Amino acid sequence: MLIFKKYEIYNLYIRIKSPIILRGKSTGSVFDYKNNFFGNTYLYFDLKKGTSVKYENIIFKNYNPSSQQRVGIVTVISHSDDFHLQFYNCTFINVIDNNLVVNINPSNIYPIEKPQILYDKCNFL
Q1: Does residue 103 sit in helix, strand or coil?
Q2: How far apart are CA 22 and CA 56, in angstroms?
Q3: Rounded to whole angstroms, how far apart are CA atoms 114 and 32?
Q4: Whole-angstrom distance, CA of residue 125 vs CA of residue 123
Q5: Residue range 5-25, pLDDT digits in tens
Q6: Cα separation of 46 and 34, whole Å?
Q7: For the whole prediction, is pTM greater than 0.70?
Q8: By the 8 A CB rule, do 77 and 47 touch?
C-alpha cells in the first residue's frame, strides 16, 4: 500500500458489473496498510441482480483510518439490496477500526436467498 501513499491515492473506486474474485496466493497475499488508510476500496454495485465480489486468501494488515470517519478497508455502495460480498480464508491483523462500511439505498428490493455479506473461514487477530 506504500505506492498509494507515495502518490497520495486514498481510495480505489471499482464499479462492479459482473462477478469478481480477488484471489491471493494459497499462503495468503498481504495488503499491509502501514498503520494508515491509503488504498481502501470502494465497491459500487450496479443494479444488476446478484452481482458478487469475493476476496480469497488475502491478509489485511495494519489498517488504521483513525483520522477519518466511516472509512473501511472495503466500502460497499449499492442501489440494490441484491449483491454479495464474501471474504474467504482472509486474515485481519491489527485492524484498528472498521473493516467494512456498507451504504445501501435500494431502488429495487429483491428476495434475498443467501447472505449479502459473508466472512467464511476468516481470522481476526
Answers
A1: strand
A2: 6
A3: 31
A4: 6
A5: 565 666 788 899 899 999 999
A6: 32
A7: yes
A8: no
